[in-house]
Amino acid sequence: MTLTKNDIVMRVSEMGFSKQRSVDIVENLLVIMKDTLAVGEDVLISRFGKFCIKTKGERKGRNPATGDEMILRDRKVVTFKCSGKLRDRINGDD
Prior knowledge:
alpha+beta, HU Protein, Chain A, 2 domains, two-stranded antiparallel ribbon, 5 strands, extended
């Protein structure tokens, strides 16, 4: 099962917030995270994990439609490394 943004909003609203307030809370949290990552800073959430920006270098690629080789430019990707606490919980070690 996939946890969607709407599912998160519903869980926040179960804590006593109105539906609209819950939407605002979740949206604002995501905007803060996106803005922080966009300027190249990491997002660390204690006991959950760390979102980081990594740079992938230029490399050879292939157009899947035509099979033509091409050079893929440098790009940045977001990576996630879970905390030890989260890893333990996932593995049932908590």
